Amino acid sequence: MEGLFSLLLLLILSLVAVFFHLIRILFNAPVDFSMDWNLFLSWIPLIIAFFADNLTKRFGRIPVGVILLSIIWVLFFPNAPYMITDLAHLTVDYDRDLTWHDVIMLFFYAEVSLFNGLVSLYWIHRAWRRVFNRSFTWLLLVASLPLAGFGVYLGRVRRMNSWDILHDPGAILQNLLESAMDRTALVFSMEIGVLLGILYLVLWSIIRFRIRYTKKA
User: Fold this and answer.
1) CB of 91 closer than 8 Å to CB of 114
2) Residues 172, 216: contact at Cβ < 8 Å?
3) How far is CA 105 from CA 24, 25, 36, 83, in A?
4) Which class for 169: exposed (0-12), middle (13-18), buried (19 or more C-beta within 10 A)?
5) Where do transmembrane segments lie in this chain (predicted)?
6) Please, where are the H alpha helices in 60-182?
7) In the chain, which residues have pLDDT < 50?
């Protein structure tokens, strides 16, 4: 199945991130597995997009299946860029070794989580391209970026998570309505969306250049 090498590489990077955390624990620091949980959550949209990409490649146009997978994907996609906001937990003490370890560790967790999100975006985008027309595909792509930012806002500021959709949908609806009228939420969503869009454009350009170069070679 296409993409297995990418999954293996991302798994190795995730294990390296966990290794940084284990080093932190060896410093007799309090154990906090929230980073590992957030990293695990970033794998959910990646796995969903992996299956959507391979299903559309094997079976062609399956709009109902892709729509269902896309809905689940967009609900969990914000978990990938969410870890960027964990950098807000950093405390600075330039004479303390743990300060620099924490900077590297948190950045690495955020980086791997972001990689998971960008690769998942590429795979789900490729699945959309096989099923929908070009204009609708790009509409879905552009819309998913600020929606991801909005999801990060709900998680970081409103303290909501993807699972609340199942066990507390009322709270989700209330937070959605309140946040939709919040200027900070809108600005935050757009800026995260722009960040993801720029990073995805870089990833897309690199992959497309590699494909074209390989064909010419």
Assistant:
1) no
2) no
3) 9, 12, 11, 12
4) exposed
5) 7-27, 33-52, 64-84, 104-124, 136-154, 185-207
6) 63-76, 79-82, 97-131, 134-156, 164-167, 169-180
7) none
Residues 174-198 pLDDT 10s: 777 888 888 899 999 999 999 999 9
Residue type, 207: I
- pLDDT at residue 207, as a whole number: 84
Any idea what DSSP says for residue 95?
A: T
pLDDT in tens, 102-116: 889 999 999 999 999
Question: What element of type H or E holds 215?
Answer: helix 183-216
Nearest to 113 by CA among 159, 22, 45: 45
Q: 3-class SS at 197?
A: helix
Residue 116 CB coordination number (10 Å): 29
Sorted by where each begins, the domain ranges of the chain are 4-216
CB-based contact 193:186 (threshold 8 Å): no
Can you give the pLDDT at residue 210? Answer: 67
DSSP sequence for 33-81: THHHHHHHHHHHHHHHHHHHHHHHHHH---HHHHHHHHHHHHHHTTHHH
> What confidence score (pLDDT) does residue 215 get?
60
The token duo for 169 is: 């949908």
Supply 77's token pair.
């996609």
Residue 177 CB-density burial (10 A; 0-12 exposed, 13-18 middle, 19+ buried): exposed
